[in-house]
Design brief:
Blueprint: E1 10-12, E2 15-18, E3 27-30, H1 44-57, E4 63-67, H2 71-78, E5 85-89, E6 97-101, E7 108-113, E8 116-121, H3 127-141, H4 147-154, E9 165-167, E10 174-178, H5 183-196, E11 202-207, H6 211-214, H7 219-225, E12 231-235, E13 252-255, H8 258-265, E14 274-278, H9 286-292
Parallel strand pairs: 3-4, 4-5, 5-6, 10-14, 11-12, 11-14, 12-13
Antiparallel strand pairs: 1-2, 6-7, 7-8, 9-10
Helix pairs in contact: 1-2, 3-4, 5-7
C-alpha cells in the first residue's frame, strides 16, 4: 500500500494539469477545498474542475472518503461521481464516520461507524487534526483494518515536523511551530492553542511566503484569522504593494524582514507566553533564532 499526499498544484512547466490526476488512487480522501495557488488558478471553480478530474480517475470498485463539512467538495461531487462514497464529519452524527472529542484539545476522541464505537488516544491537538485522523481511520478500514485496530494504532502516530511542533526553550516561554499559512489553517491552529492555554498570552508570528498570500488574495480574511492571538506579527514582502488593515486587530504588526520582527518581539517576551510561528518555509531560521536567543 502506498499513501500519497496529493494537491492540486500543476504538474510541471509543460503539464499544467494538477499533479493528483496522475496518481490513479484506489481510495481517495477529499479533505478540504479552498481557493489557493492564485498564480496557477483564476478562481475557485477552476480548482473544483481539477478535483472533478481527480474524482473521475477513481475506479468504480474504489472508494471516496469525503469531508461532509466542506461545501466546496459537495459541489465537486455534484459535478459527477461514479465511485462509492463514505462521508466523515466532526459536526454531524448523520455522516458514515463521526468523531467526537472526549477530552479537551481532542487528544482523546470517539469514532462511530456502522453501529460500532472505538476510542482513540494520541498526541494530536485540535479539532482539525481530529478530522484528519478520522479520515485516515476511514481510509484504513477500506483495506480490511478494523475500526478498533485503526484507533489503537493512532496512539503510536508521531506528527512530522512543523505540525504544532513544540520546541524546547531556555527561558520559560512556550514555543510552537506550524505549517499553517492559509487563513483557515491559521485560524484552526490558533484556536487549538487558545483552548490549550486559555490563561496565557498567545503571540502569533506569521510569514506570508506563498504566492497566493503575498499577492494579498486573502487579505480580507487574514486579520480575522489572527483574532485568537493577543499579539500578532506578520512578515511579508512589502514589494507586493499591500498592507494589512491594522485597525482590525489591536495588536497587529507588519514587517518586511524576519530580523525586524525578532527585534520587536524579543523585548516583549514573558516567561508565561505561548509563541506560535507559522510558515510554509524556513522563515529565515526564525524558530531556531528565537529559541536560542
Amino acid at each position: 500500500l502506498f499513501v500519497v499526499e496529493a494537491d492540486e498544484y500543476d504538474t510541471a512547466f509543460f503539464d499544467k494539469r494538477s499533479k493528483f490526476v496522475h496518481y490513479h488512487p484506489q481510495i481517495a480522501i477529499l479533505n478540504n477545498l479552498e481557493f489557493d495557488h492564485a498564480d496557477i488558478f483564476a478562481n475557485l471553480d477552476a480548482i473544483k474542475t481539477q478535483f472533478h478530474h481527480l474524482v473521475r480517475t477513481v475506479p468504480q470498485n474504489g472508494k471516496l472518503i469525503v469531508n461532509a463539512d466542506e461545501p466546496n467538495l459537495s459541489d465537486v461531487i455534484n459535478m459527477g461521481c461514479w465511485t462509492p462514497i463514505e462521508y466523515f464529519s466532526t459536526d454531524s452524527e448523520q455522516a458514515d464516520w463521526f468523531a467526537q472529542e472526549t477530552s479537551p484539545g481532542c487528544q482523546s476522541f470517539e469514532v462511530k461507524h456502522a453501529g460500532k464505537t472505538a476510542r482513540a488516544n494520541w498526541t494530536g491537538m485540535g479539532k482539525h487534526n481530529m478530522r484528519n485522523a478520522l479520515a485516515a481511520i476511514a481510509a484504513a478500514c477500506q483495506t480490511g483494518i478494523t475500526l478498533q485496530d485503526a484507533c489503537t494504532a493512532l496512539g503510536d502516530f508521531r506528527f512530522p515536523d512543523k505540525r504544532l511542533q513544540q520546541h524546547p526553550t531556555q527561558t520559560g516561554f512556550t514555543l510552537y511551530e506550524d505549517f499553517a499559512h492559509h487563513p483557515t489553517a491559521i485560524s484552526f491552529t490558533l484556536e487549538t492553542l487558545r483552548k490549550a492555554y486559555p490563561q496565557q498570552r498567545l503571540i502569533a508570528i506569521l510569514e506570508l511566503r506563498s504566492n497566493t498570500m503575498q499577492m494579498g488574495v486573502h487579505k480580507k480574511t487574514l486579520v480575522p484569522a489572527l483574532k485568537q492571538a493577543d499579539l500578532a506579527c506578520v512578515v511579508s514582502n512589502a514589494e507586493k504593494g499591500w498592507v494589512l488593515p491594522e485597525h482590525q486587530h489591536p495588536a497587529l504588526n507588519q514587517f518586511s524582514r524576519a530580523v525586524d520582527c525578532l527585534d520587536h518581539i524579543q523585548p516583549l517576551l514573558r516567561s508565561s507566553d505561548v509563541v506560535l510561528i507559522m510558515s510554509n518555509g524556513n522563515f529565515d531560521g526564525l524558530v531556531n533564532t528565537l529559541r536560542d536567543a
